[in-house]
User: Fold this.
Amino acid sequence: MYQRVVYISVRPVRVSDSIVRQEIVGPSIERNAAAGVTGCLWHDSVNFLQVLEGPLEATWAVMARIRVDHRHYSVNVIADHPVSTRSFPDAPLKHVAGRASDQVGRVLTQALERAGPMVSDLVRATEKIEGIPESDRADPLRLARWRCRAPWIEPAIDELIAVRGL
Assistant:
C-alpha cells in the first residue's frame, strides 16, 4: 500500500522555467528516488500541481520540504489517501510542462471549477463531494477525511498519467 498526496500551489513570477528544471526537478528526482517516492510535477505560469506516491512517512517527509520551499506559496493539499498501485511507478518525478501541459491545465481548471471557486476553501470543496453522511459532515475530524479524498482532482491526474515522453 502506498500513500498518494496531491497538492496545488502558486508559482511566483520570479520562478522561471529554467529554475523549475534546474533547481526543483533535477534535485527532486535524486531525492525522491532515494526515498522511494514517485510522482509527477505539472506547472503552468501560475500554479504547480504535484502528485506524490510512496511509503507514508517518506511521502510526508517530501511534503514537509515542499511546504517550506520559497519557490512557491499557498500550498494546499487536495488529496491524501492510500492507493494500492502507483500511477507513476517508474518516475521519481515526471515533469509535465510546455504544450504537453495544456490539456492537463484545461482538465485541472474544469476540476477546480467543479470543486468550488477557491481551492484553499476545502470546506466548500468538500460540500461538492456527494455521499458524505450527515453525521460525518457534523464531525470536523470525519469531515477532514472526506476533504482529503478530493475525487474531483482525479481527471487531472489521469491527464498527467497520459502524457508520454517527458
Notes: Helices lie at 17-35, 56-67, 101-115, 122-127, 134-138, 140-147, 154-162. Residues 11 and 72 are 5 Å apart (CA to CA).
